[in-house]
Amino acid sequence: MNTIKKIPALIQARMTSKRLPGKSLMTVNSKPLLMWVIDAVRSLEFVSEPIVLTSTDFADNEIQDFCEHNSIKVFRGDRDNVLLRYQKAVEYFKFKKFVRITADNPFYLNDVSVKAFNTFNSTSADYLHIEGLSHIVPEFLTSKAIDYAVGKASTRSHLEHVTPILRESEAQDKITVIQVLNHEIGLQSKLDRYLTVDTKSDFERFSCVVEKGVPKTKKELYQMIEKINMR
User: Fold this and answer.
1) In the chain, pLDDT over 90 holds for what percent of residues?
2) Which of 30, 32, 52, 229 is the most buried (most CB within 10 A)?
3) What φ, ψ does residue 103 adopt, rounded to 5°?
4) Chain-wide mean pLDDT for the chain?
5) Which has the closest alpha carbon to 53: 27, 26, 81?
6) According to the model, what pLDDT value does residue 228 have?
């Protein structure tokens, strides 16, 4: 029986979200959103450990305190250049491969994410992503991909959102990029926008979902989201 070679998950988090400031430490059932995300990441069987990447901004001292209190590794870097923050963390920890996680997605699910990971792990991919991206399946990168992105970044969007440059056509001439189509792993893209926490209404929806129990599969999650949206 083959043993999965696990890789770390790097979770970008901050307190200065424009649409919902402080959301990383807003609580549901006495548990901060960031911990909901971390627990979801820990449920992914291919993840060796979660590491939080936050900024050196004073406001993010709270995130460092939270991580240290809960024995979670934390790395701090540039506030606005999130791409550089990733590169510096990858260099510091000497990672060759990693999972990219955003701290506003508390519904990462193992049953579908492991399918994407298996493709990433069994190929020479430097970057693997879901068609249109996904809030329940993360992105997978190598250090080569992040170095390429830093070297080619030329816009604020590249620096803030990290991976758009890797989905540009020019990148495919320099690194190996794989896109997994939604239908290949049974994702419903029409529901994906309801699976992140970006606004107050998103946070309220998330609260409604977890009050009924944390979904373990995409089928359970989709059914719960559809019921809430039908109210």
Assistant:
1) 93
2) 52
3) -80, 10
4) 95
5) 81
6) 87
Chain segment 146-204, per-residue pLDDT in tens: 999 999 999 999 999 999 999 999 999 999 999 999 999 999 999 999 999 999 999 99
- Per residue, the 3-state secondary structure of the chain, as one string, reads CCCCCCEEEEEECCCCCCCCCCHHHCEECCEEHHHHHHHHHHCCCCEEEEEEEEECCHHHHHHHHHHHHCCCEEEEECCCCHHHHHHHHHHHHCCCEEEEEECCCCCCCHHHHHHHHHHHHHCCCCEEEECCCCCCCCEEEEHHHHHHHHHHCCCHHHHHHCCHHHHCHHHHHCCCEEEECHHHCCCCHHHHHHCCCCCHHHHHHHHHHHHCCCCCCHHHHHHHHHHHHCC
**Contact between residue 181 and residue 132 where contact means Cβ atoms under 8 Å apart:** no
Domains identified in the chain and CATH numbers: 7-229 (3.90.550.10)
Q: Give the separation between CA 208 and CA 224, rounded to whole angstroms.
A: 9
Distances (CA, A) of 21 to 16, 17, 131: 5, 5, 29
Does the pLDDT value for residue 1 go beyond 50? no
The tokens describing 23, both together, are 């959301």
Nearest CA among 168, 160, 128, 161 for reference residue 144 = 128
Pair 46, 114: CB distance under 8 Å: yes
Model confidence, pTM: 0.96
